[in-house]
Automatic annotation (TrEMBL), chains A, B, C, D:
An MF annotation (GO) of this entry: fructose-6-phosphate binding
Pathway assigned to this chain's UniProt record: Carbohydrate degradation; glycolysis; D-glyceraldehyde 3-phosphate and glycerone phosphate from D-glucose: step 3/4
Sites where the protein binds Mg(2+): 102
Keywords noted in UniProt: ATP-binding, Cytoplasm, Glycolysis, Kinase, Magnesium, Metal-binding, Nucleotide-binding, Transferase
Function field: Catalyzes the phosphorylation of D-fructose 6-phosphate to fructose 1,6-bisphosphate by ATP, the first committing step of glycolysis.
Protein name: ATP-dependent 6-phosphofructokinase
Cofactors required: Mg(2+)
EC top class, as a word: transferase
Gene Ontology biological process terms, A to Z: canonical glycolysis; fructose 1,6-bisphosphate metabolic process; fructose 6-phosphate metabolic process
């Protein structure tokens, strides 16, 4: 029996621990071997596949990124179910583990609906997948963002500045919420909650009045209420293409203009998704990996591994891919008590 | 209205974030002020109490330890309910937040049973409290242990040695389990599971045969099966008092003698409980702090804040203090697949 | 006897360790007291000065930034020598320790030339001051940049991308050189060395051909040869003011266009100057602080503390402020062997 | 032309960066190939040698330990010069790079004196080699020790304890000196300086009187004056062999007995020598590696690469191996000002 495994979409700390967990448990308990599919769905539809013996996963759970490579290829634009079935048959692949986010899991669900034997592993640095309490990658991202804000704060305090820190989160504000609470931010701005520039400046002034250097954490997808037009292009890049300024860089001059407090923006960007995974993420990813190979062996096609409380459970891929898990207003309210 | 707050028992990363969360929410939302009780129950029975204005909790969630100090004083040995009631009345304290582990919460429960208006916040670096999925401190401890094992492994590999790393956990093996999984240990030894020295050596030889430097993670409370007598004193300390060697230092020479592999022990000790809390612990501790002051205002005496899934809930102090939360065998089995 | 102390210019990890070292040695050995001047020269010319007892410097060497605050005020635009003499006399200040970079030390030198009793402590995160082998802050900046590149590399490798990482260094490339060597960059671009976009792309393709994800480290002051016009404004900011794109963001699309390799830019920015100082910087800064107070007591006006090999020596402020310490071509050549 | 390379003695962060620097520069500039000698001198006298192509050193400068393995084998006990010459001839090895500490470099010197074409690279985590300002590994060790002391301090403060932290340094106190300064220790105890237990307790009480938790940093080779007998065995280990208690564990109960302050000991041990090297060590090690291959190509047999100020120079192996570089008294005096 041979199982294919792929990682798809943006990279995320913990992917390698999932791979390692699945391969070792498959080798030891179920006597199954693994085939490594390179660069996500691309490798599957292009038949770019290599054996993945246990030896090759040695020690990888400490490494960031994914040893299999990743891409954003959509299998349904490259032959779809028929092509996937063909390659799997040619390779003698009797099951497939697809590790990825909303897009990947939606593709996996459609493949499963079409009869492809596939099991999903949820991956989202943004924590935006419903049907699982958390996924790996999120804890590392929050840790890096928190450490970065701790660092930026000392400069802000020395110079009596306001600092606006932009973290990941196009559609949901989980990273901003957790990093903002952990770092003691004076405001946390997320896509889910409407806040005006005036209200932001109120928190900034409040912090300043208590002799603090105001620190604002903003998710990249936040838009101040009444200023949706700010999404319009800001200037041109080196090739004359219109560019969108990040929300952090757009907010900083507005805050400075209104409050008179010197304000700087910092954008953490890719730093949040790379490097050594946190212990939390390694444990969760390892558990996901071993549970996924069990699901394959038990032919639980169309399911996804999931963290519920402290347990790993199998849930239907449909339940995981239909609703975006946004920050509930009460969680933001709970945090907002500490603002300003 | 004035609320007393104390931290008791061993220190733990996140204590300050609980204090900060409670004080700020109390100040802003409930208009209550706080009294800081110094060194746990000692400060309460000795009336060593200071005002704790909001200004004093500024920026403390990033700091390890506790700004209030701590001790292992048991209030029932120093006047008990009568003395506590007397001091609280003299100070105008209408409620009490007690942050601590099993001992502290048991005292809090007895006080509550006796009519003292007290709310508990669970603190255990060992993760051994039932009635809450996790508490703050555990994640930081696991992170530090994991990083340390990552470091120790490179030396073991360069010298072709076996490394035995002793982590905290006198009664339960949660830190060993999580750090061992995260660091890819070749064996995880915990108090809950019987393992013989022969079995340990089997894993060590297995790893060696695959050209790995064997890494064993052992909780301090582990005893090899059939060797309970090893708890007998080992030598004398500088003052002639009998001393107990740690389990790591006891195992290392045995493994070396049986397997012939050079073996060293490292004991992480207090490193695991100090320093900057992880982002995870700061978030959880902050949420516990704000929830605790709500519970006080709502007069939910005799309850404890608790993490259930991703929610903060109130549970009865009785439920929290009667059963030790040990590692279930299936969790260890799940990890043991990766051993050797 | 009372000594004034100020920190001026951009903040830098280690400033607090200088202050602590000077204050404690002054208190214990020389029986001198300190006055803390707030926000650099601003506090001196505006007489914003507070007592700085030993108690206030407790434990601060671990903290980033400066407890005294800082600014970019130039004393010669606010009363100059006369005003400085006046405030010092009024405060009974018999000596002054000025901690800062090229601008600060030039001002200190002019004040010393005019008879003001001042001693300098060199501070430059960029390592651009001659007359000292290193200063504090540089090691922390290099450490953070190196860790960040380590993180970014895993994402680049997973996605088969080229990553351009922009680090500090407007006029000199020391941070880029050291972080680039430490992180194993495939090219290091610094203001001191002319390199064309074609040569950069050659290194990128070379790395790609060996199946590596190319990593380019660029100092913010680098300009590709033949493309000086790129310094022209790029687009407008949120207030319609012209903005300069960073060199990293300008290089990335050019590399992608020429090589066909997907390329992303990351700008580390203020992250490099904040937060907990490295052990190296704390030791050096502490030694600078204790040496500076000795110099004041010995009335060595117009000198600056300096690291020569492993010794702390006093050098003339003139020697420190006339030549920018650039990266010698042979140091870059030595590193360039490892490019591509 | 083929060059042998080996790492010998205790492992040390930066060894891999030396190897990588030498191999890449050899390949690119000098067109020489490398042979990797396994486990130090053992691999040489036992002819356990493998090709070391450039591909094998990819990305290793970030990894702790040594990819070549190490041992404490002395070549003069296994055939000496004749055997070394024989194996080198059989392998076509025209030069040798030996990376190691005092023992390794002494062996290298004797081999060079006997006509073996060898160049040395100094490695000492303890910083005890004369003829070089610093070597790689020391900075990482100091960094880890400093971070650890930062962590331990918070526990000490919360519990109002004294903490004794034992760091590496059997013969010299450099790690203790630097980590002690960086972490703000209240006493630094090193083998080079006589200090009595009474004096130590004086510093401890001093710190306590100023409401600090006393932190003592002690090098493992320190002996309190008048108590040399303390080196006598302390108890028995698990096999009945006499064991020496560490100095930290011996001091703690004495300090507690004399001062009445609860005192704990922590021994950092192997943690200090493993794991990811600091940026400083990676840069220095890379420079050493590239300079060593140059020295081989220029047939500078019997020399060693060395850091003088900021330059890499070649020095005679004799000069490097005759004098132990101890901490000068004035450096300890400089630090002692901040004690207590």
């Amino acid at each position: 029996m041979s199982i294919g495994i792929l990682t798809s979409g943006g990279d995320c700390p913990g992917l390698n621990a999932v791979i390692r967990g699945a391969v070792i448990k498959g080798d030891r308990i179920h006597q199954v071997s693994f085939l490594g599919i390179r660069d996500g769905w691309r490798g599957l539809v292009e038949d770019d596949i290599v054996p993945l013996p246990r030896h090759d996963v040695r020690g990888i759970s400490r490494a960031g990124g994914t040893i299999l490579g990743t891409s954003r290829t959509n299998p349904f634009e490259h032959g779809g179910i028929e092509r996937v079935r063909e390659v799997m048959a040619a390779r003698g692949m009797t099951g497939l583990i697809a590790i990825g986010g909303e897009g990947t899991l939606t593709a996996a669900r459609r493949l499963a609906d079409g009869g492809i034997p596939v099991v999903g592993v949820p991956k989202t640095i943004d924590n935006d997948l419903s049907a699982t309490d958390y996924t790996f990658g999120f804890d590392t991202a929050v840790s890096i963002a928190t450490e970065s804000i701790d660092r930026l704060r000392t400069t802000a305090e020395s110079h009596h500045r306001c600092m606006v820190v932009e973290v990941m989160g196009r559609h949901v504000g989980w990273i901003a919420l957790h990093a903002g609470i952990a770092a003691g931010a004076h405001a946390i701005l997320i896509p889910e909650v409407e806040v005006s520039i005036e209200q932001i400046c109120g928190w900034v002034e409040n912090a300043r009045d208590r002799r603090r250097a105001p620190v604002i954490v903003v998710a990249e997808g936040f838009v101040p209420s009444g200023e949706e037009h700010l999404h319009a292009p800001r200037g041109l890049d080196a090739f004359g293409r219109p560019r969108l300024g990040g929300i952090g860089e757009r907010l900083a001059p507005q805050i400075e203009a209104i409050t008179g407090i010197e304000t700087r923006a910092a954008t953490l960007g890719h730093l949040q998704r790379g490097g050594v995974p946190s212990a939390y993420d390694r444990v969760l990813a390892t558990r996901f990996g071993t549970a996924a190979v069990d699901a394959v062996v038990e032919k639980r096609w169309g399911t996804m591994v999931s963290l519920i409380g402290t347990d790993i459970e199998l849930v239907d891929l449909h339940s995981a891919t239909t609703v975006l898990k946004t920050v509930p207003l009460e969680r933001w309210d709970e945090a907002a008590i500490l603002f300003g």
